Structures are given as structure tokens and as C-alpha cells.
Request: fold
Amino acid sequence: MSFGEIGQMIRNARKRRKLTQSSLAEQLGMSRATISGIENGTVAEIGIRKILSICAALGIELVAQEKTRRPTLQQLMKEQGDA
Reply:
């Protein structure tokens, strides 16, 4: 999963909860610009703690896994959606 995909996942989860970037940022003690940059993939560097706190606030989980040669279910579903 790329940083851009993580940002998109965060954006989608935030919108499902009907939160603005500003309200989420205020809840987490971050700036709206930081939330925007994460969602758009334009932040040069961001700490893992910030990403994890955003995920926790939105009820999503960031998972690290060993890379395999086999495609994941998400990759297969994405490929099928593109076809």
C-alpha cells in the first residue's frame, strides 16, 4: 500500500463519519493542513504515531505485513474493478 492509498483510505473514513478536516484535526491536536497533506499525499514526512492516532480516531486499522509474491484480496478486487 502506498502513502497515497493510505491518505485516500483516511479521507474516505473521515467522510463516512461526516467529519471535516478541521474537526478531525482539532480532535487530534493537529493542524488542518497536516490532515489535508496526509490525505493528498503531499506531506514530505509524517510520524507513524500521527498516522496511528488518525486511524484510531476514524476506526480504521493500519496493518504491516510481509510482502509476498501472491496478490492480496484487495489487489485482486482492485484489478477486477479496473477490468
